Structure formats: structure tokens, C-alpha cells
């Protein structure tokens, strides 16, 4: 018996990093998937890998800031697989990094719209589709803006902390329908988005970021996917409204 046997799930940000790892894990655990990112070619690679392992996934590329795209992810889950049980709203960007005094409004808006407004649009359509069948909505937040103020990351921190407040209200609204809603807060994770993989990153940057964590390393995307699987599955049947850290102790470490 697998943890997501015959469950139907949407995963955004599935073309890379944490979402890609989650797509492969959720499929292995029996879920049928609608996967999203902006890059269709990268999504098709993920779908091919899932199908090669006997899983089922459909790639729908598009921008999560587009309400029509969010609606189409849900419509595809319903029309192709028969409903919706789980959504891992994981797409996100760090966006422009600058001190607040030097941060352009355009950059602020892009980050807020991608990381926060898109989550609202997703939840709106996903919760309506799940209705009374029960389910799990997961939103990828971060420790930045929750337990750490990191210079230059104001828009990112505000967008991701905003998700935690959003999750609390949504969990309260949807609890009677047995729809659980949680935020997942990874620590530094070795993905293309990490500042440690930026073109100008040095070994010193990597050592610094690793050293911030109690475990003195970064996460692999598969480790964060495991935490998402917990929140998606009945293993977390009494967990809702939380901001769940999977952060290698970056929030508590002062050494
Ligand atoms: N890596 C870390 O250290 C870390 C730590 C804490 C939280 N997080 C969060 O974890 C989530 C996943 O990030 P990651 O580290 O796995 O980064 P990643 O490898 O860059 O993946 C980001 C994903 O989001 C998608 N995406 C970005 N903007 C999008 C948009 N407007 N519409 C649709 N899809 C979009 C990307 O797809 P396309 O490129 O195909 O559009 C990609 O699949 C993000 O929300 C991030 O903020 C990451």
C-alpha cells in the first residue's frame, strides 16, 4: 500500500528542484499528477520519468499568476483523473534582491504576485474542486521572514510570511470539509534557485549557508519532498494550519 494510492494531485513548480522531486515521489506513492511550471520541455522530461516508473502525470505549462492557468490545472485534474485531492502550491521565486530603499516597485510586485497572489488563485480553484471529499493543500513558504530576517530579501520574506497567515485563515475556513491546509518551510535546499548555485556563488558562500544550519549542510530536494509527502498524506491527518519547518535547524542554530 502506498501513501497516496489513487489520490489526484496538482504540483506547481514541478519542472525543477523541490517540486520536481515531489512529483516523482508523489507518483511513486500512487498519486496521479497534474504538473506545472512555465517550461513545457522541462515538465515533459519529468512526466517521461514518472511514466517510465509506471506513474501517471500530465504537464500543463503556464504562469501561476494567471487565474485561467490555475483554473485549467484544476479542470485537467477533474476531467482527466476524476477529481482533486491534493495541491502542492510550490512554484516560487526569490526575485529581486536589494535593500528596501533600492528595491523597485516592479520587482516587489513580481515577487508578491508569484509567491503569494498565485497561491490565493490556486487555493480558490483547488478548494472549490475538492469540495467535501476532503484533501490537503500545501504551500511552500520558508524560514526567511518567519524566523530569520535576511538583508535584501524583503519582498521574498513578505510574500512567504504572507503565505503563513493565508494558510491559517484557509485552514479555519476549510476544516469542516476535512481539507487540511499547511505551509511547508524548507531550509536552504540545493536547487537551481539557491543563492549557492548562482553564477557568482563561491565555495565561501556555500560554506556560509551550510554553516547557518544546525545540521551544517543544505537539504537535498528529495528531503523537502518527503516533508511535503507527510503533509499530503493521511500520515498528517490531524495536522492543519501549521507552518511546518523542515529546515535543518537553520531557525534555531546560533553557532
Ligand atoms: N531552494 C531553497 O533554498 C528554498 C528554501 C526555502 C523555500 N524555497 C521555496 O521552494 C519552492 C521551490 O523552489 P526551488 O528551490 O525548488 O527552486 P527552483 O528549482 O527554481 O524551482 C522553482 C519552480 O517554480 C517554477 N516557477 C517559478 N515561477 C513560476 C511562475 N510564475 N509560474 C509557474 N511556475 C513558476 C519554476 O518553473 P519554471 O522555471 O519552469 O517556470 C520551477 O519549477 C519555491 O517556492 C521557493 O521559494 C526554496
Automatic annotation (TrEMBL):
Provenance organism: Rhizobium laguerreae
Keywords carried by this UniProt record: Oxidoreductase
Domain of life from the UniProt record: Bacteria
Record bears the keyword Kinase: no
UniProt keyword annotation of Metal-binding present: no
Similarity comment: Belongs to the short-chain dehydrogenases/reductases (SDR) family.
Listed name of the protein: NAD(P)-dependent dehydrogenase (Short-subunit alcohol dehydrogenase family)
